[in-house]
């Protein structure tokens, strides 16, 4: 059986691009192509240096660059690993935007894009008048052709009168019409996949998932979206930064804590 090469590329020394950036870029390309998987270890600094005939410093700089953009995370004493998709909780952005910024190729497999009557809970959450319709969008979110989440979005029809016009990013579509959300409330919880959701994501029933419920609001305060997502936990890493406004600095190491 043929063993997979730890490094699927060679450097082009005729390029004017610094070698460390070449290595960083080509490792990134390999990640995006699925050669390296989420949570898989990258080749070590030593392996990169020896295989590509570069200095250890050059290999180190390449890995540091990938670390700085969030594509890898470092485990002390173990190595560098492909990082899950980070979703900062303090910044309102869409799935496509988050993945594109990291160099991935986001895509969707649409299950349904229709206009429909809202359910009672949807009508209340979105503040809809009786008789108002909604755009109901249901899709599988893909990260480099791998299904990573099942998403259902409900938007008042006045903001999306023709759901079939949305090809990839719903937020981009809303922004073009001046209706992009400026803030959102998100609720997170751990759930087990129902038989229906498991089938859609291609996983076993009862597999642990992240469930996210998001309500997005316009500058006017009107609710513009209600989105529910079931996410495969191995592909997502939710990050929150917390501060204490008006409080004294936290004690230094060795001082008493509250």
What is the third-level CATH name, the topology of the largest domain?
Answer: Chorismate lyase
Please report the number of helical segments.
Answer: 7
Q: Which architecture of the largest domain would the CATH scheme give at its second level?
A: 3-Layer(aba) Sandwich
CATH level 4 superfamily of the largest domain: Chorismate lyase-like
Give the overall form.
Answer: elongated
Strand order of the largest sheet: 4-5-6-9-8-7
The percentage helix is 10-25%
What series of H and E elements makes up the topology? HHHEEEHEHEEHEHEEE
Mean of all residue-level pLDDT scores: 81
The total count of strands amounts to 10
Indicate how many domains the architecture comprises.
Answer: 2
Strand pairing plus helix content: what structural class?
alpha+beta
User: Mind telling me the C-alpha Rg?
Assistant: 22 Å
Strand content: 25-35%
CATH class of the largest domain: Alpha Beta
End-to-end distance, in Å?
59 Å
The major β-sheet equals: 6 strands, antiparallel
Provide the low-confidence segments as ranges. 87-93, 248-258
